[in-house]
Amino acid sequence: MEKLFRFDFVENNDLLIVVGLIFSILVFATLLFFIVGKIKPSANLTELKARTKSWWFMATLFIVATVINTKISYIAIGMLSFIAFRELYSVLGFRDADRRAIFWAFIAIPIQYYLAYIGWYGAFIIFIPVVMFLFLPLRIVLKGDTNGIIKSISSLHWTLMLTVFGISHMAYLLSLPEIEGFESGGRGLLLFLVFLTEINDVLQFTWGKLFGKHKIIPKISPNKTWEGFLGGLLSTTIVGYFLAFLTPLSGVQVVFVSFMIAFSGFVGDIVMSSIKRDIGLKDMGNTIPGHGGVLDRIDSLAYTAPVFFHIVYYLAY
Amino acid sequence: MQKLVLNIIYSFLLRGFLKIFVGVKFSKAEFLLEEEQFIIVANHNSHLDTMTILASLPSKIIHKVKPVAAADHFGRTKLKEKLTNFFVNTLLIQRKRDKENPENDPINKMIKALDDGYSLLIFPEGTRGEPEISQPLKPGIAIVLANRPKVKYVPAYMKGMGKAMPKNDNLILPYNSVLIYGKPSNIDNIETEQILSQIQKDFIDLSNKV
What we know:
The complex is a heterodimer of chains A (317) and B (210).
Chain A: H1 13-39, H2 46-68, H3 70-91, H4 99-118, H5 121-142, H6 149-173, H7 185-211, H8 226-242, H9 251-279, H10 294-316
Helix pairs in contact in A: 1-2, 1-7, 2-3, 3-4, 3-6, 4-5, 4-6, 5-6, 6-7, 6-10, 7-8, 7-9, 7-10, 8-9, 9-10
Chain B: H1 2-22, E1 24-26, E2 38-42, H2 48-56, E3 65-70, H3 71-74, H4 78-87, E4 91-93, H5 106-115, E5 119-122, H6 140-147, E6 152-159, H7 161-164, E7 177-181, H8 192-209
Parallel strand pairs in B: 1-7, 2-5, 2-6, 3-4, 3-5
Antiparallel strand pairs in B: 6-7
């Protein structure tokens, strides 16, 4: 029981500050929408309220899973990959002949997370991009149905890369070796990554809603504007600078990595938007009220996680 | 005893398995508690269909709902018959009518189960079809409903099951799928054709909702 729940994060001021910050933002948003709703009953806040409510749930779940016990986090992040993979492959329209290969793609999920857990970097980094990349086509080819095989091979591997390989970098952060004088460790890095990615989504959305005029990529996402993008980029970078204590990086490095998180988060978002547009869906599902499916929430993380990980890995480890 | 076993299997084990692993989105079935007796009429694409519907039922009434299944498939041996009857709570019928032997006649068997107080689960498409393609409905359900017009039928529609576990494949894969229920209704008419088109229309309405 002692092992299951580690409350040492209470003694680690750095983590505690951010956990406090997250909940203050949520309290602020909840109060804001409640008051605006009272003052201006005509404003349609149903979606924003549903989103905030879901944020409460997700933030609590995330903090419980990551900060309190790292072992649970590997499983929780793995579950996230599993749900996202299932969500995406379900709408991509695979053939019956691909079912055996899809089965192996599912098997790859626990293996990838186990490699992250034991911290075997070399295997972790090649398992999906090399091993699965070569193996899955073989399994599809053995079925002998060549009609539409290119689409099957490529979309299966792409789905696996995005939802499993990308997301699993979050888990590997927890397996990074300790650095002397940097107490928050992997948990701090993970908290930094997730907080910055999500706050970037929120900030880009808010800037866009308040000042958005010039559409940035109207064919894919009519709601995205230059004002939202640049405002989000700038404000996320500033937020990142003040959270530098969660990372082992220097000031300049943190600014750079925060900028990259904001930028790649935007890219992940529009990539997933274009996929949804192609299939003709608005959201990937309705698992999370106000947000859509799980994938709608973590699409930017699938991009920010590997980008953040490899920059930090290069700079600090 | 059987009630307890069914509750553990369906309300607990299978519901968890279908929800978390397969990714089935259940719609609430609590409204069925208000009906004394009903016939669930569902589309059929997969062996998971029966499991999903039973798992969606409120645990209080699971043992009162008998899935109607083909005897030639599930009752091939005495042991298989006993096991399916116990663990799936099935009502096994033969596919063809039997005029000479009224006790063995599928319609009579279903009506008798209704008279005994059971509710039924029927797949009027008969056998499992291609995913998301509906097949013509068999008249049996209409004859039963025409004979017991007071019993309400409840349309149920499932999407994605045939992808999670298609015909001719025993491998279950996770696949985001949905089960939704329509409103319990009485038949408007006792003509077989009309009843079937009424049910067909319910299926189409539900399929547009998912």
